[in-house]
Write a structure and sequence with these properties.
This protein has about 120 residues and is mainly alpha-helical. It has two helices and no strands. The chain starts with a helix and ends in a 96-residue tail after the last helix.
Length: about 120
Amino acid sequence: MAKQHHVNVLRQSVRNWNFSREQRPDVVPDLSGADLKGSYLVAADLSGANLIGANLANANAGKTDFTKAQLKDASLDKTNLAKSDLREADFSNSDLQEADLTAADLRQSNMSGVNLKQA
């Protein structure tokens, strides 16, 4: 289950979130199962974050860093991921239906079992 403090900081603002990540690079963000539906996450540093089972449907996450993030079983339908860094992220069994992946970097990401219908 997500650490509520992590969810609160991310919802507060991407600027505060990124500052927090810079100050504590040793902390692995736990956003597992978090409801971030429709959130504004543009340019957030979510690298290495645990987002297993999180709901990011309809979120604006363009230009976001998801490098090595765990997104297994996550809901990302209709999510803007344009120009995002998704390298080595685990999206297995996630829903990316109608997601915008324009110019996203998907190198070495795990896309097994992913719903990419109309993405």
